[in-house]
Amino acid sequence: MTERVVLAYSGGLDTSVAIGWIAEETGAEVIAVAVDVGQGGEDLDVIRKRALACGAVEAEVADAKDEFADEYCLPAIKANALYMDRYPLVSALSRPAIVKHLVAAARKHNASIVAHGCTGKGNDQVRFEAGIQALGPDLKCIAPVRDYAMTRDKAIAFAEKAELPIATTKKSPYSIDQNVFGRAVETGFLEDIWNGPIEDIYEYTSNPATPREADEVIITFKEGAPVAIDGKPVTVLQAIQQLNERAGAQGIGRIDMVEDRLVGIKSREVYEAPGAIALITAHQELENVTVERELARYKRQVEQRWGELVYDGLWFSPLKRALDGFINEASQHVSGDIRMTLHGGCAVVTGRKSDESLYDFNLATYDSGDTFDQSKAQGFIDIFALSSKIAARRDLRA
């Protein structure tokens, strides 16, 4: 029986060429799998037909936008996931979603190999292959660009020689990856970290410096999940899409950073994630109102580790799975409304309301009606500071 390879297929030049390239290098039949995680662009059926025209023996497409939002973006919102305190894991979240479909296709078509189009110096090769090994430890992984030195020049020459039905002349100066949760731009003139980004690189966000009226929005959460916008029920996908549009129109969610890649190099990345930043900002503030202090302090440590695991491609790891359990438990009271003003590139919380609130006005007020017994504070401070006081006496004697 001829060996079969499942290829993560985008419909672009590199993965279209990879179909024939893999067949030549390995003698295997190629099954192309395209997964829609809200990246926009061409119709899925167009992509499926192109894969077949480029030599795939089978081509599958999956509309996974709701699945991606519910099973991958929502956990990131609950985790307030910001790698290096800034990056909302746009690309890192989509890889395990795609991997799940690749492994399912490999089982369906009796394939023993899964292929992807990543290079050998980025994070995505790890995310794909670590995920594939977790879900299909018997499967082998190959990457034509990395393993067979399939450079872009070679890819264009291969496409022209084979007369593949794909444009080979247009070359963007940037490397772009996008989905419904955000958009990542790198390479080109951005590789000089002194160069500022230009407006041409942005698509999800408008220039925040452009004068415009502010936009006020109320986001309703239930147990950490966004369930309504301005009182109208929404799915997680709809919440992200609506806030992409509204926060994006205000220039919110632009991130320009030098980040630490898993492979050990530093990389300059420009992101735009308006919906993600707006939702995480609102969710963080609702947690401030509804989550007990010690739980909140510990959760912040968990959030950082969760983000690192996902960034590093360990979505399916035992630790990530265990941390999910903690985060879901910590989210059980995170329900209520957050009012935000979207304007000038900033999402600013202006109001909070929750039936699960731990904020007690009578304890917090300094006016009449204060129920906090201030007479107990002195004794509390004496005991709280006692160990430091004893150590300070010793140090003074020395």
Give an overview of the whole structure.
With 398 residues, the chain is α/β, with parallel strands linked by helices. It has two domains: 4-171, 3-Layer(aba) Sandwich (Rossmann fold), CATH 3.40.50; 176-291 and 333-353, Argininosuccinate synthetase, chain A, domain 2 (Alpha-Beta Complex), CATH 3.90.1260. It has helices at residues 13-26, 44-53, 65-78, 90-108, 124-135, 144-147, 152-161, 236-248, 274-290, 293-311, 318-330, 361-364, 377-384, 386-397, and strands spanning 4-8, 29-36, 58-63, 113-115, 140-142, 175-179, 182-186, 215-222, 225-229, 232-233, 254-260, 266-272, 336-343, 346-353. It is elongated.
Write down the oligomeric state. single chain
Strand count, sense and barrel status of the largest sheet are: 5 strands, parallel
CATH topology-level fold name of the largest domain: Rossmann fold
pLDDT averaged over residues: 93
How many whole angstroms does the radius of gyration measure? 25 Å
Q: Any low-confidence stretches, pLDDT <50, length ≥5?
A: none
Order of helices and strands: EHEHEHHEHEHHEEEEEHEEHHHEEHHH
CATH superfamily name of the largest domain? HUPs
Distance between the termini: 82 Å
**What's the overall geometry?**
elongated
- With helices defined by DSSP (H or I, 4 residues minimum), what is the helix count? 14
Can you tell me the CATH class of the largest domain?
Alpha Beta
Structural class: alpha/beta
CATH architecture term of the largest domain: 3-Layer(aba) Sandwich
What is the percentage of strand-forming residues? 15-25%
Subcellular location: Cytoplasm
Catalytic activity: L-citrulline + L-aspartate + ATP = 2-(N(omega)-L-arginino)succinate + AMP + diphosphate + H(+)
Binding site for L-citrulline: 87, 123, 127, 175, 259, 271
GO molecular function: argininosuccinate synthase activity
